[in-house]
Structure to design on (314 residues):
């Protein structure tokens, strides 16, 4: 039995799909399963992964587990939240006697400051590495291509992408499908021993200016632009979008670390850590699909507003 924590997320759901397709017995952990039909063939453990007792029970009988600290944009103190969650996971692994662990981490997790939410993953790597009986693989993944989907409202409304990263600076970007594929392989073939680190850096480094052109072509917006904005302006946007002040601050710190080379200086690209999915492929598939759905929702809302307005006229 293989346990997947965060089974309804971008990465966890794809890991489950991989494992089931290869005939593995899978137990899925999530707070809610809104579409249980997507998990046919798997055991569902619905509950709070921030509870040691619940996690220990979910881990019972498992030969390997995938673990992560899910982001919580409502957390008032990000690192405190991450460490509390991480402590629960580590305690459950220790008490349940799990032998093989694949842990989702991040590039820059070896740094002790200046990386925003990655600092919580630095703490978790150190915490898990204190568990001597478990063999652990820390997957240090780079900037998710899926992060670009968050820019859809401004792309649809203004034909622009906004951010604080210098538009000319190339950064590595990885598709979550590639992370899931590697994680699933490791869970099915847990030959790793002791405590290890593996980087997943995407197909190549890409600047935000280049990314805007690639995404724009995929959705028929050839003139899509990336616009660099001051951090304070971006902070206000993040808070307005629902992030707490601390989440906005740490996210901006992470973006600065990507843009100024702090994180890039911690690794080197090679054939092993270069993954398959290009931004062009991601743009044609995942991003274009998200764009079309967002556009359809917006058009539906406009239609409903027009209908409502029409009914209100005398």
């Amino acid at each position: 039995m293989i346990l997947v924590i965060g089974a309804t997320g971008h990465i966890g759901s794809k890991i489950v799909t991989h494992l089931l397709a290869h005939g593995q017995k899978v137990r899925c952990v999530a707070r809610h399963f809104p579409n249980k039909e997507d998990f046919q063939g798997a055991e569902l453990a619905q509950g709070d992964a921030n509870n040691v007792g619940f996690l220990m029970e979910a881990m019972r009988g498992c030969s390997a587990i995938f673990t992560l600290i899910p982001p919580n944009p409502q957390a008032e103190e990000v690192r405190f939240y991450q460490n509390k969650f991480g402590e629960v996971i580590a305690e459950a692994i220790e008490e349940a006697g799990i032998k093989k662990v694949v842990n989702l981490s991040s590039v820059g997790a070896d740094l002790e400051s200046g990386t925003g939410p990655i600092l919580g993953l630095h703490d978790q790597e150190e915490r898990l590495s204190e568990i001597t009986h478990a063999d652990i693989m820390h997957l240090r993944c780079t900037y998710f291509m899926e992060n670009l989907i968050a820019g859809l409202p401004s792309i649809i409304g203004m034909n622009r992408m906004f951010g604080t990263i210098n538009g000319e600076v190339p950064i590595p970007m990885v598709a979550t499908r590639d992370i899931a594929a590697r994680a699933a392989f490791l869970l099915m073939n847990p030959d790793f021993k002791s405590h290890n680190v593996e980087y997943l850096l995407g197909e190549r480094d890409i600047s935000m200016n280049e990314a805007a052109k690639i995404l724009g072509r995929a959705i028929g917006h050839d003139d899509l632009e990336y616009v660099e904005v001051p951090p304070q302006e971006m902070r206000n946007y993040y808070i307005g979008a629902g992030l707490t002040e601390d989440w906005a601050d740490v996210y901006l710190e992470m973006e600065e670390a990507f843009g100024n080379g702090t994180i890039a200086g911690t690794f080197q690209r090679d054939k092993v850590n270069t993954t398959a999915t290009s931004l062009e492929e991601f743009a044609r598939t995942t991003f274009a699909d998200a764009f079309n759905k967002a556009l359809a929702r917006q058009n539906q809302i406009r239609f409903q507003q027009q209908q409502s307005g029409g009914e209100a006229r005398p």
